[in-house]
């Protein structure tokens, strides 16, 4: 293990606790990396976690959960810091600690949920926004990206006009349960941009939720924390 110079924080996490964490498997809040890839690639994982609810990256753990350990803390730290501070926009403040185990040392990287969303990655085609979906980091849709922007400004007062477009939407949802931007545009005979704006506004008003299946976004009626359907406008 390379400890030549530089700051190094040893985690208070015990090997048994680390193994319990690993047993949970990769998911919405947890990512395994045998070693840190290029800063550009790891920045996508960081941005996705920050745009969702935050989480952890364990470097020195294979995809199957086997602890492989890292060779050099400072090499991994350099790549991770470059990704967080130079590639992610706005820059992320991450916390790195070393967890020592008999099988090898694992780097525990804490990625906080971003206060300013969305966190994006520059590319030749523009700004790329990633979110966490299950155990994967995926490109966010335009609707998801727009909703992330509004998460950072919770003081916005959202209202909506209950007209014929909304009435048709609620009737459709009562019958079919979900609707996409494209399907709603066909239903009310408007552009997809216009249907997207209506649906986004209803999500912000707490009437709808954005769901995803097979990498396709759908809008459904919102559900309360107790699992029951939220309040729905009268048809």
3D architecture notes:
The chain has a four-stranded mixed sheet with strand order 1-2-4-3, sandwiched between helices. Strands 5-6-7 form a three-stranded antiparallel sheet. It is elongated. The N terminus is likely disordered. The N and C termini lie far apart (66 Å). By secondary structure, it is an alpha+beta fold. The protein contains seven helices and nine strands; from the N terminus they run αβαβαβββββααααββ.
What is this structure's SSE topology?
Layout: H1 15-23, E1 30-33, H2 39-51, E2 55-59, H3 73-87, E3 95-101, E4 104-111, E5 120-123, E6 126-133, E7 136-139, H4 142-151, H5 164-176, H6 181-188, H7 192-204, E8 208-213, E9 216-221
Which regions are unreliable across 5 or more consecutive residues at pLDDT < 50?
Answer: 1-5
Structural class: alpha+beta
- What kind of sheet is the major sheet? 4 strands, mixed
What integer is the average pLDDT?
90
Strand percent estimate: 15-25%
Key terms for this structure?
about 240 residues; alpha+beta; 4-stranded mixed sheet; disordered N terminus
Sum this structure up briefly.
Helices cover 34% and strands 22% of the residues.
């Amino acid at each position: 293990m390379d400890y030549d110079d530089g700051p190094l924080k040893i985690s208070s996490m015990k090997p048994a606790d680390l193994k319990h964490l690993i047993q949970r498997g990769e998911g919405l809040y947890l990512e395994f990396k045998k070693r840190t890839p290029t800063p550009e690639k790891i920045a996508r994982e960081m941005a996705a976690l920050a745009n969702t609810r935050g989480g952890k990256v364990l470097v020195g753990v294979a995809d199957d959960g086997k602890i492989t350990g890292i060779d050099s803390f400072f090499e991994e730290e350099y790549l991770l810091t470059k990704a967080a501070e130079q590639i992610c926009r706005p820059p992320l403040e991450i916390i790195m600690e070393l967890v020592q185990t008999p099988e090898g040392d694992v780097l525990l990287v804490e990625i906080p949920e971003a206060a300013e969303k969305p966190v994006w990655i520059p590319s030749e085609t523009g700004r790329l926004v990633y979110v966490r979906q299950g155990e994967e980091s995926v490109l966010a849709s335009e609707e998801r990206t727009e909703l992330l922007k509004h998460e950072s400004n919770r003081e916005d007062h959202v209202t909506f006009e209950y007209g014929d477009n909304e009435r048709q939407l609620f009737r459709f949802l009562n019958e079919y349960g979900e609707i996409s931007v494209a399907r709603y545009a066909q239903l009310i005979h408007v552009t997809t941009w216009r249907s997207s704006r209506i649906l986004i506004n209803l999500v912000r008003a707490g009437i709808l939720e954005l769901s995803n299946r097979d990498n396709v976004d759908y809008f459904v009626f919102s559900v309360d924390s107790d699992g029951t359907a939220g309040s729905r406008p009268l048809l």
